[in-house]
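Structure first, sequence second, as always.
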């Protein structure tokens, strides 16, 4: 590696300009993007169900990448990362660990959303010293009430979206009132804008179905002891999350010592995206402490 030329390059702080790279670990070529100033502890982003690198909201990524080294990645079998999608959250967490250690990090901060938050909690249960600070958005704990019903709701909303030629996230992440519909359109526009480089490969149907089975298993699993989660933790959600019920954010807040909780009004699963102007600086400040 030519370190001098790396140092001469200007720091990329815009997600749409972040280069796409590959690292190999345990027989998987993990695809990832990185941006922000290198050095110190990186913030690794754990993405949601059926999502690839292209699905992150640049408004949130860029706010954090202003001061921090940010890394987003595709799990095994997702997007352009090869292999088969694992059928358990535990296996996904081990893949995440393999990816992080392949990049040479032994300490990270985590920003997670939905399925990503389930993977993050499981990763910490297995590797408690890896994560310094944790952001959990739109997610819930293992064994959480009604998490096992995500699959049914997801299929119903995908059907509605297909019938109206909409992006399924408009139904899954946002309320269907005027405010929610406006926020949904704006979010989809932000996350489907052209990436300066190549677009990521789309999620395969089989992998998506396997992820849904893993979530169902997680929802019916034995609850983890969240009192062992000692990292400073910020939890955020909308007040009307139909996918991962908002009460589960309150449940995690009660069980994770000294955690901070933000519930945004009149918003759903994607509350942090609807309120990105309010949330992004709060998340950045929390991660920079």
């Amino acid at each position: 590696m030519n370190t001098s030329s790396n140092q001469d390059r200007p720091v990329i702080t815009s997600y749409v300009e972040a280069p796409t790279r590959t690292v190999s670990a345990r027989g998987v070529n993990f695809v990832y993007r990185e941006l922000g100033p290198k050095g110190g502890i990186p913030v690794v982003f754990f993405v949601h169900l059926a999502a690839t690198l292209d699905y992150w909201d640049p408004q949130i990524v860029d706010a954090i990448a202003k001061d921090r080294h940010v890394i987003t990645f595709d799990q095994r079998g997702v997007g352009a990362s090869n292999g088969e999608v694992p059928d358990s959250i535990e296996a996904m967490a081990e893949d995440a660990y393999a990816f992080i250690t392949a990049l040479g990090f032994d300490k990270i901060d985590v920003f997670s959303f939905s399925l990503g938050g389930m993977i993050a909690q499981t990763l910490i249960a297995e590797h408690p010293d890896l994560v310094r600070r944790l952001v959990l958005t739109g997610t819930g704990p293992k064994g959480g009430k009604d998490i096992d019903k995500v699959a049914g709701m997801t299929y119903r909303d995908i059907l509605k979206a297909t019938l109206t030629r909409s992006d399924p996230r408009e139904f899954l992440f946002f309320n269907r009132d005027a405010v929610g519909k406006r926020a949904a359109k704006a979010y989809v526009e932000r996350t489907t804008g052209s990436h300066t480089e190549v677009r990521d490969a789309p999620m395969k149907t089989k992998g998506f179905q396997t992820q849904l089975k893993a979530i169902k298993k997680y929802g019916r699993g034995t609850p983890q002891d969240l009192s062992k989660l000692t990292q400073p933790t910020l939890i955020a959600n909308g007040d009307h999350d139909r996918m991962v019920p908002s009460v589960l954010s309150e449940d995690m807040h009660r069980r994770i010592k000294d955690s901070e909780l933000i519930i945004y009004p009149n918003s759903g699963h994607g509350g942090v995206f609807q309120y990105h102007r309010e949330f992004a600086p709060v998340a950045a400040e929390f991660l920079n402490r």
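Margin note: The chain is about 40% helix and 15% strand.
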